[in-house]
Amino acid sequence: MSDLILASASGIRRAILDQVGLDYRVVPSEIDEGAIKARFTGDVAALTQKLAAEKALAVSRCESDALVIGSDSIACCDDIALDKPRDREEAAGHLRMFAGKSLFLHSSVALTRGEETLFNAHDVAELEVRKYSEEFIQNYLEMDWPAVGFCVGVFRLEGPGALLFDKITGSHFTILGMPLLPLLGALRDEGILPT
Q: Rounded to two decimals, what is the model's pTM?
């Protein structure tokens, strides 16, 4: 059986893999996401797939016998792609922008070995953000800052993030940051999981 590596230090991505009982180790990727984003000319879906693959490839080039999982997520509102907020003030600005609109969360996952991308999948979830007050924004950030500062979309569904939404359409795992079900299929194809 191949060694399995997660190319991410994300606690939630580790929790997702732990919950399904995967045996893996963590080797965080050290790619320059900003440089990739600056040169990229495709849509957000393709960008998340590119970033997921690049994260995995950066690790698999050094761990050539291992299967490496890379994942990435980007939130979009009003056709604007948003990264994790740089600080609490920017987080509040994102929350103001989202109020009463649809937030689209794009997540991708890739599986690589050596120089080869074996699998790459994208999924998107739509989160209908309710209208809320400035007081709510400040109270929400008081409750969950700095944890939501590490999250695209400034929310954690495993925390008070559910307070932001009227309706959510899409995979729970995609919203958490990794399209798990397609990944599990790819791991079955690679013999990591039983069929």
A: 0.93
